From TrEMBL:
Cofactors demanded by this protein: Zn(2+)
Enzyme class: hydrolase
Species whose genome carries this gene: Ligilactobacillus equi DPC 6820
Protein name: Small ribosomal subunit biogenesis GTPase RsgA
Biological process terms in GO annotation: ribosomal small subunit biogenesis
Gene name of the encoded protein: rsgA
Positions of GTP binding: 116-119, 167-175
Every EngC GTPase domain range: 76-222
Entry keyword annotation includes Hydrolase: yes
Listed CDD domains: S1_YloQ_GTPase, YjeQ_EngC
Amino acid sequence: MVNLVKGQIRQSLSGYYDVMGEDGVEYRTRARGNFRKKGQTPLVGDLVELKAEKVDQGYLLKIYPRKNQLVRPPVANIDTAVVVTAVKEPDFAANLLDRQLLMLENHGIRPVIYFSKCDLLSEDEASEFTELATYYDRYYHTYMSNQDQVVASLMANLKDEVVVFMGQTGAGKSTLLNAIEPDLQLETGEISKALSRGRHTTRKVTLIPIRESLLADTPGFSSFELLDVTVTDLPTLYPEFRQYQVNCKYRGCLHLKEPKCAVKEAVAAGEILQSRYDNYCQLNELLANQKPKYR
Ligand SMILES: Nc1nc2c(ncn2[C@@H]2O[C@H](COP(=O)(O)OP(=O)(O)OP(=O)(O)O)[C@@H](O)[C@H]2O)c(=O)[nH]1
Ligand SMILES: [Zn+2]
């Protein structure tokens, strides 16, 4: 008897896709040539339909439309990305954090911020960062690594979601994933990673069920590519701009040189963080000078 089942790809490894069926059964499947012809590659996180004579001999029939997808890690239908950002070592860079937040907003992925290495801050620096974290927390859930029960609060926020971890190299992604699930035993630190380079030659991506969420065990990297965003869409990716722009005098105000701009007034009044606004102006210039893309 041949079974037709709907499910979600939970793991991809050397051309095999392990699918958790809606019937609670795990199927090992392959993609037939029909996907290649269409130029489609199944991704972990994909909602699929499959046919299986035996649980280890299924094949994928259909991939349902994705709500989003990332390149690194290659995962589809992501609900939330935890942006791991070191407050020190490497030095905190507000514009890097902001770019990651924008990229995620643009993909329809909810960003959550995790400030790592807070234990390295002096008392003065710590109070400065707490202020910064409080600002970001108004618009995104924000955690500081030295908070009490930080892993438990973070995980409570990620229930029933597909979650990826991202951030600069050395930010502490593997360390955080290990704290969430010690069984992962991900290597941390540059030296141990350098020693084992080349050992893991197969590319495996897994969504692991941990405390009622599905976590990608492969951390992602920050993307420094130019955003695929128009100059007019850019300000809509800043939640605090969205909040103030209704009071701008001009419709479609880009908050640059326009008079009576509520966003600029909020920056001047210290209600919007100067670094966020400066970063916006920089990106606007970058996008405005970007060569048009022909598709
Ligand atoms: N003091 C302190 N060190 C940390 C913390 N989190 C991570 N580290 C250290 O920072 C270094 C990098 O951490 P990793 O977890 O390997 O960073 P990563 O983001 O996975 O790095 P890549 O795999 O290179 O992208 C390691 O030496 C960790 O021990 C923290 O909260 N406090
Ligand atoms: Zn404005």
